[in-house]
Design brief:
Layout (H helix, E strand, L loop, with lengths): L13 H36 L6 H17 L4 H24 L8 E7 L5 H10 L5 E7 L2 H9 L5 E8 L3 E2 L1 H9 L3 E9 L3 E4 L10 E4 L1 H6 L1 H5 L5 E4 L3 H11 L4 E5 L1 H7 L2 E4 L9 E8 L11 E8 L6 H11 L4 E8 L7 E8 L5 H13 L2 E9 L52 E3 L2 E3 L5 E5 L6 H14 L3 E3 L16 H15 L3 E4 L6 H7 L2 E4 L7 H8 L5 E4 L6 H13 L5 E5 L17 H8 L4 E3 L1 H5 L2 H13 L4 E5 L17 H11 L4
Helix pairs in contact: 1-3, 2-3, 11-12, 13-14, 13-21, 16-17
Bound molecules: phosphoenolpyruvate (PEP) and manganese (II) ion.
The site of manganese (II) ion has 5 residues, from loops.
């Protein structure tokens, strides 16, 4: 090969040599820009011809060619590989954005909500995320992460940037909790390289500084540097950019701030010292969240974020993780946070490489749902880990040699069954679900008895009912606080005041409680204290309510709608399961038929039919079926005989004075007799 032409320095003076270098750098930049344009054109072509978006063979052969050329130029192959890995990564990210389009074809402007002001790292991360997307962004500065999330939920912003973790200071708990409790979907991620600088005003210098303003996280990440300044006071600030803006407005040369170089530019501050972080490599990972999930083109390498809880059974987490291993899905992150309502139970946040739309991911998720108590997919999104592929460069071998491609060969995800539901079906999960709440098991071989008044009427009444229930052997206490009544003039319940009484009675008698949630807006608050959430017959097809309790980590008792077929009922259960909550049990409470001698007709056949069709536990409520206390005991016995997993019975210390459903309520003695019969001692 011909010797490459060396550039002859025309003049040996340092200035002109530098000029020469600048000229070369300009050319390199122009060529890089040109290369990006060509790369975009390749992306369009790949999209048109449906070619895979990342072509490992092509990347390897490109690198091999570069290394060979490097040798010809007497350049270090390591240097050249390093540079071209970066160029390839940039090209891949450019093509990825091209493929994905903006937020799946969204508009050309986007309002981005973030915690902080201009010049904050969140803003810089937003700029990085949108850099190669054909979108104009405008910022909505918020005081708290929760405000940014709520701005998206309520349509004031299109996306929010939420920092979830930093490589130096770790996970950001507040954001994890927010992800679980908001309805937002993750549509992207940004790994932003944080480079903290010490900023001062025009006249300040390192030795004049007496105090430093900074975000607590930023201060932690710069603790080594700050430790060397023992006489300097550190003042905590809500966000980094804000501390920069503040010192600018104070204009005191003895006060400095920790912020980005970008903030210095924006606020006209001076950089007193660069790179003051403990670690040179310091990254913050932001999640980009929107109201709706996006679907990611299967050609794009993607990542999925998931939140789940598994309970405390030994090996439960291992069991869940094994489902990913079975499907060859790499986990890239696992973080745990205590559940808010159940402090000793952990919620696990998990990221894995893969796309929810792919069959093997669906299979893994089906498997996860079989063990987990709660599973919610936060979203699939294009991965920013444009990790250099694990290259196996054979620099002399023939690159034309065909490579063995991973054929997949995985079975397709279990389809929606003929009946139309999936998660609730026995086909999806063969073993029966057993729900554990406060030491009581619902499902499996145990027979659970839930008892208590139709409505909580006073503390004395619910205490007396609870004492009777407990003494007779019931293990869960019921009581209506919000009473959806057929007539608006009937007693509507004591609301949250009643709930407090029920909680107290449950606590005193050591029984978990169940109460009906009347509407979606009550779910969050009632989940704080009610161990089980009841969905009443009249609400069985209130799909918003079903999805909302599906997002709670409390078990749900789903009563059958009075005119609902088993199929409709199981579809209703499917709504709850699909929203994440896997702890659902069914309650047969009688249906509307032409027969008028009972309040409803107890459909005893529903129990064995459901046990065939679903893995979810089924209990029987003889009280609302009968409408008459004399029929409650025989119907309860029938429920037990057909294999129900338990009963729910209305009892009252003085049924004659009950404010609702007195006619069907057993008094405490009658309930005691019923329990003796149920236990085979009557
Ligand atoms: C109840 O159990 O409190 C109740 C109101 O029952 P249903 O929803 O079955 O009518
Ligand atoms: Mn009732």
């Amino acid at each position: 090969m011909e010797e490459p032409k060396e550039r002859e320095p025309v003049d040996q003076s340092i200035d002109s040599l530098r000029e020469n270098v600048d000229g070369i750098d300009d050319q390199i930049l122009a060529l890089l820009a040109e290369r990006r344009r060509v790369s975009s054109a390749i992306a369009s072509e790949k999209q048109r011809t449906k070619r895979p978006f990342r072509d490992e063979d092509r990347e390897n052969s490109l690198l091999t060619k570069r290394v060979e050329a490097a040798r010809d130029h007497d350049l270090d192959p390591g240097l050249v590989i390093g540079i071209w890995e970066q160029i390839i990564a940039d090209s891949v990210s450019l093509q990825q954005d091209h493929f994905q389009g903006l937020l799946n074809g969204g508009g050309s402007t986007a309002v981005v909500a973030l915690q902080g002001i201009e010049g904050s790292y969140s803003q810089l991360a937003a700029e990085q995320f949108f850099r190669d997307k054909p979108v104009e962004i405008s910022l909505l500065a918020c005081t708290r992460f929760a405000d940014a999330a709520s701005a998206v939920e309520h349509g004031r912003a299109d996306v929010a940037m939420l920092p979830v973790e930093n490589t130096t200071s770790g996970g950001i708990a507040e954001v994890y909790d927010l992800l679980l409790h908001s309805r937002l979907a993750v549509i992207g991620e940004v790994k932003y390289r944080v480079q903290h600088c010490l900023l001062g005003t025009e006249d300040s210098s390192l030795d004049t500084i007496k105090s430093i303003y900074g975000h607590p996280q930023a201060a932690t990440q710069c603790s080594d540097f700050l430790g060397e300044l023992p006489d300097v006071e550190v003042v905590f600030f809500g966000d980094t950019a804000m501390s920069g803006r503040r010192i600018k407005s104070i204009g005191d040369p003895t006060i400095a701030a920790i912020a980005s170089e970008e903030a210095a530019r924006r606020f006209g501050l001076k950089v007193l010292k660069r790179a003051i972080g403990n670690r040179k490599e310091n990254y913050t990972r932001f999640l980009v969240v929107a109201r709706d999930p996006i679907s990611v083109d299967p050609q794009i390498p993607s990542k999925t974020s998931l939140v789940l809880s598994v309970g405390n059974a030994p090996g439960a987490l291992l069991e869940v993780l094994a489902r990913f291993k079975e499907q060859d899905i790499p986990l890239v992150k696992l973080e745990s946070r205590p559940t808010i309502d159940n402090p000793w139970e952990e919620m696990f946040y998990l990221d894995f490489d893969g796309n929810v739309s792919s069959p093997h991911v669906q299979l893994a998720l089906d498997g996860v749902r079989r063990t987990a108590k709660f599973v919610r997919v936060l979203g699939s999104y294009p991965s920013q880990d444009l990790r250099p592929q694990k290259r196996n460069l054979n620099l002399t071998a023939d690159l034309e040699r065909p490579r063995v491609k991973h054929a997949g060969g995985k079975p397709a995800a279990s389809p929606v069954t003929a009946s139309g539901y999936r998660l609730a079906s026995r086909e999806q999960k063969e073993e029966s679900t057993v729900i554990e709440v406060g030491g009581v098991k619902i499902g499996g071989d145990d027979f659970v008895v839930i008892a208590g008044p139709c409505a909580v009427e006073s503390l004395e009444q619910v205490m007396a009912a609870a004492a009777g229930a407990k003494a007779a052997g019931a293990t869960i206490l019921r009581g209506g606080c919000f009473k959806p009544r057929t007539s608006p003039y009937s007693f509507q319940g004591l609301g949250y005041e009643g709930l407090e009484m029920l909680v107290e009675a449950g606590r005193v008698h050591g029984m978990p409680i169940v109460t009906e949630v009347p509407a979606p807006e009550h779910v969050e608050r009632m989940s704080e204290t009610s161990d089980i959430l009841q969905i009443g017959a009249r609400n069985m097809q209130n799909f918003t309510l079903l999805s909302e309790v599906g997002r709670s980590s409390r078990p749900v008792m789903l009563k059958r709608g009075m005119s609902a077929s088993l199929d409709e009922w199981l579809h209703a259960a499917e709504y709850i399961l699909d929203a994440g909550n896997q702890q659902v049990f069914l309650c047969e409470r009688g249906i509307r038929t032409f027969e008028t001698s009972t309040r409803n007709t107890l459909d005893v056949a529903a129990v064995p039919v459901l046990k065939q069709r679903t893995h979810l536990p089924v209990i029987v409520d003889p009280s609302h079926a009968a409408g008459d206390r004399h029929l409650v005991t025989p119907l309860a016995m029938a429920g037990q005989a057909v294999g129900a997993h338990g009963l729910m019975v209305e009892i009252h210390p003085n049924p004659a004075e009950a404010l609702s459903d007195g006619a069907q309520s057993l008094d405490l003695d009658d309930f005691d007799d019923l329990m003796a019969l149920i236990n085979g001692k009557g």
